[in-house]
Amino acid sequence: MPESTMVDARQEILDLKNLPPLSVTASRLLETVSNPEVEIAELSYIISQDPGLMARIIGLANAAYFGQAMAITTVHDAIVRVLGINMVKSLAISISVSGAFNSDACTGFSTKDYWFNAIGCATMSRMMVLRIPAAERPDPEKVYLSGLLHNLGCLVLAHLFPSKLSRVLALKSKDPDADLEALQQEHLGVDWISAGVWLVNRWHLPDFVGDVIGAVADRSYAPGDKYDVTLLRGSIHWLKGYPTQEPGVHRLSEDAALGLIPGLSVDALNLVEDKFLDRCEELDALASRL
Questions:
Q1: Which domains does the chain have, with CATH numbers?
Q2: Residue 83: what pLDDT?
Q3: Tens of pLDDT along 228-244?
Q4: pLDDT of 29-79, one tens digit each?
């Protein structure tokens, strides 16, 4: 792909001429990322100012995925009784930011698959982080938010280049083994990872999100340099193979043997994978709500 084509694609993303600005709600939620002392009442109020976002957060809290027996009817209850303040903060940010994009014109783009990968990556990465010794453990909530936003570039491409991306997705469908990023570079001049990093910078999303997404694409990045990156990369790699796992085969521990996920025992990784697989059906239903 000529360098000039890539520059043009990058500039179109940076200009964001066809995209609305971040909503007031999204901007206010992003301010809470740097405020670990944000109160439940304040977060509930911000979310409640956006009826659509409020409905989705309450709907998520009532999903079977979270196993809540009693009906949740308020954002406050969703935080206190089911999700917790950090998870609600991350989910609300992700939903609000993604709401700036419209992928309807992109044939073959699945919003459900987008959210399955986003929440799946966030969940698996966080599960692995919590099995790292506390002294070495990165912030689980930053890892979770990075997982939720890691594929944001997919929405950018679907919004800006719906016809071109539709052709790429059709080619990928015909040849599942094809390299999606290479196809996007060839036909669009940019791939979803680069688009995500550029958008993170353009919208001034948290620096750690852009750092993690960028490192995921950096083939020179040495496994083990940072746990948050290696776990995120491992989760993305695992999800690319879902749902083709053979019964009894643990791909996370296989990935660890390849050096993709250093620092965790085989038993710990197998347990994470088993727990994740047990929840995949519910995760699929959860993704449908978004």
A1: 3-18+102-288 (1.10.3210.10), 20-100 (no CATH)
A2: 92
A3: 788 888 888 888 888 77
A4: 998 887 888 899 999 999 999 999 999 999 999 988 888 778 999 999 999
Query: Does the reported pTM lie above 0.85?
Result: yes
Question: Do the Cβ atoms of 152 and 196 come closer than 8 Å?
Answer: yes
pLDDT given at position 250: 83
3-class SS of residue 262: coil
Backbone angles phi, psi at 110, to 5 degrees: -105, 115
